[in-house]
Amino acid sequence: MIRFWWIALLSASISGSIATAVLMLVCCVLRFFKKEQPLLFAGCLALALYLFPFALLFPQKGLSLPPIDPNLSSGVLPFVEPFSPALTESSLAFAFLSPAERILEMIPFVWLLIFLLLAFRSLYKNYRFARYLSHKRILCRAGEAYTAQGKEIPVYQISMPCSPFAYGLFHPAIYLPDGHRLSKSALLLVLRHESTHIRQKHLWIKAAAQLAAMLHWFCPFVWLMKVYLEDACEIRCDHTVTAAMNGGERKRYAQLLLELSEMRGGSGNSFSVAGKQLARRICALRRKADPFAAALSGVAAALLLIFAPLAALPGSRALEGVSGNMVMLREALVHTKDFIPLPEGSEGSLTAPQDLAAFFWPVPEYRYCSRMQTTGAVIAAEEGSYIYAPADGVVLAVSEESSCTKPDDFGLTLVLLHSTGPDISTSFSHCKALYVVPGQMVRQGQCIGMLGQTPETSGVLCRFQIRINGALYSPSHWFPNEAFFPGAL
């Protein structure tokens, strides 16, 4: 379960990082043309990509399976029967999990531990701060509540040197420092500013950004997005408050920001905090809202929503494949004997094994198949014909090069692992060459080897076997052609 959520988180991280990079590029373009505006809507969409793994809404689809030629030859391959059961686990080189891969398997647990520590720290700090406010706050002498667009917002005084701030998600309120010396006009500006934060749900946006930063603590782009959203919320608030002001009134508002920035303390939603954010806010006050920037914000938001998850799909698929294959290898290496090729024998008890997996025909350029095998297909082809992976998987084992010289062996052999729930594997024996190594991921239709000839055979061929939960099953279940049925000659 944790692996699933870890892959989902990485998918969201890739999508959000792409969206953040696009948003920063749009901001640079606006800054170049001196039309920089807070693209808050686009930033919220990028934030949503961090919190929701939209890439998982696009399930991976396998390759379409080409039809098999129904006109198979009735010829029989010239090889000696039965195969000798000489192929053992000792004659195969199995994949193994390297120390680095074992460390990679621990990463989801490391992420979870750090996330829980960050979440506990944040919740504890907010709990202590909220408890402090509930014990120390008193109703503001200027009035019990500030009414903004018909909604009353409580206003309190707090005995701490701080800049005015709004706090609370479900029951928000405005807090002023006790003993402040704000004029009536300045106090009205402060209340309008903080009430705008509450009405436009900026406190929720900042809380969501903090959650995304904790979830994706390893991703630098999410911290960049968090800072950008905090700036955008403040600048949007400033624009709302000063929309009807003239140049002189904007200047006095900027002076108020400078004065209150000297007060420390409060929460992350303080009216004014000294630093780079304050400099960006004052610079933004010199610019009014631009319709061009607003339109560009809408276009950027649409692009972020549509293309960022799609652009993240390849990376998400790769991460999912690597993680899934490591888990499969770890489980399969415990009982490798259930996957290696077997001599001819009776078939398993499943009535419809084809419902468990869909396979691609491994040798599209074949000439004909032997009718003498009940639990395996011996495929003949021309010299130089290639073998392709019948399904996605990982290379579990290959035989040693020296095994090809043994007269009682299966020759150069390859075992592909496709699943461990249930155990599904395919194997190819008597190969001339292999193009994969143990532990390598393969995709359906990927070239994995070449047909060859061993001392046991007198033609160019390969033996194709399918094992499910340790039992052999005839390929005729997946490729229903009469040439696979025994007794047809």
Structure, explained:
There is one protein chain. Strand 3 (145-148) and strand 4 form a beta hairpin. Strands 1, 7, 8, 9, 10, 11, 12, 13, 14, 15 and 16 form an eleven-stranded antiparallel sheet that branches. By secondary structure, the protein is of the alpha+beta class. It has helices at 2-32, 40-51, 99-136, 184-199, 202-215, 220-241, 247-260, 276-285, 291-332, and strands spanning 92-94, 138-139, 145-148, 151-158, 165-167, 173-177, 366-369, 377-381, 386-388, 393-399, 412-420, 423-434, 441-442, 447-451, 461-468, 471-473. The longest helix has 42 residues, at 291-332.
- Give a count of the beta strands, DSSP E runs of length 2 or more: 16
Number of DSSP helical runs: 9
Average pLDDT works out at 76
Secondary-structure element order, N to C: HHEHEEEEEHHHHHHEEEEEEEEEE
Task: Give a quick precis of the structure.
The chain has helices at residues 2-32, 40-51, 99-136, 184-199, 202-215, 220-241, 247-260, 276-285, 291-332; strands at residues 92-94, 138-139, 145-148, 151-158, 165-167, 173-177, 366-369, 377-381, 386-388, 393-399, 412-420, 423-434, 441-442, 447-451, 461-468, 471-473.
What is this structure's SSE topology?
Layout: H1 2-32, H2 40-51, E1 92-94, H3 99-136, E2 138-139, E3 145-148, E4 151-158, E5 165-167, E6 173-177, H4 184-199, H5 202-215, H6 220-241, H7 247-260, H8 276-285, H9 291-332, E7 366-369, E8 377-381, E9 386-388, E10 393-399, E11 412-420, E12 423-434, E13 441-442, E14 447-451, E15 461-468, E16 471-473
Parallel strand pairs: 4-6
Antiparallel strand pairs: 1-10, 2-4, 3-4, 5-6, 7-8, 8-15, 9-14, 10-11, 10-13, 11-12, 12-14, 12-15, 15-16
